[in-house]
Write a structure and sequence with these properties.
Structural class: alpha/beta
Strand content: 5-15%
Number of strands: 7
């Protein structure tokens, strides 16, 4: 490829990282993030109990919804623990076991509440991951959720989940 073509190409204007740097980056990313499909599969394999202080360590992690009470009432992941970010310093020790990893989430990709909750929990000594896509992608991928009226499920959005397949194959 000619160097003038590379300099005009917005993708290659900054050269890709070396393979070793890419391995380090993407490995670190996976250590900090969980996909909604993976969280749903792990919860389904365990019968839906995400554990917590009294629930043991099934499926090996606990899910924490860091949003407001109004947001929680509108809908949340079944089995999740409601722990708004502002309450983490005072309430985490009562609700969570430090030996059990935590997966946080908020509304969706446009919200960094799950990130702030993960940071607050990490500062308290918890192992933590953030669920990419948050509650928005949980619902958009067609997973069951709970709200103040009970359980609900919406059809999967074909832009976020494969139509007629068990998983996306990622």
């Amino acid at each position: 490829m000619k160097s003038s073509a590379v300099s005009r190409n917005p993708v290659l204007r900054v050269a890709p990282a070396s393979p070793a740097a890419a391995v380090a980056h993407f490995s670190a990313s996976l250590a900090f993030h969980a996909d909604v499909s993976d969280v749903a599969a792990a919860l389904a394999a365990d019968g839906g109990d995400s554990g917590g202080r009294d629930g043991g360590d099934r499926p090996g992690f606990v899910v924490v919804d860091s949003r407001s009470t109004e947001s929680w009432d509108q809908g949340h992941v079944p089995g999740a623990i409601h722990l708004p970010t502002a309450q983490i310093p005072e309430q985490a020790g009562h609700l969570l076991d430090r030996a059990v990893p935590v997966v946080t989430y908020c509304w969706g990709p446009g919200c960094n509440g799950g990130t702030r909750a993960a940071l607050a929990l990490a500062e308290l000594g918890y192992q933590v991951k953030e669920m990419l896509g948050g509650f928005e992608y949980w619902v958009r991928e067609g997973f069951e959720f709970e709200n103040w009226e009970g359980r609900e499920r919406r059809a999967a959005d074909p832009l976020t989940a494969p139509v007629g397949a068990a998983d996306c194959g990622c």
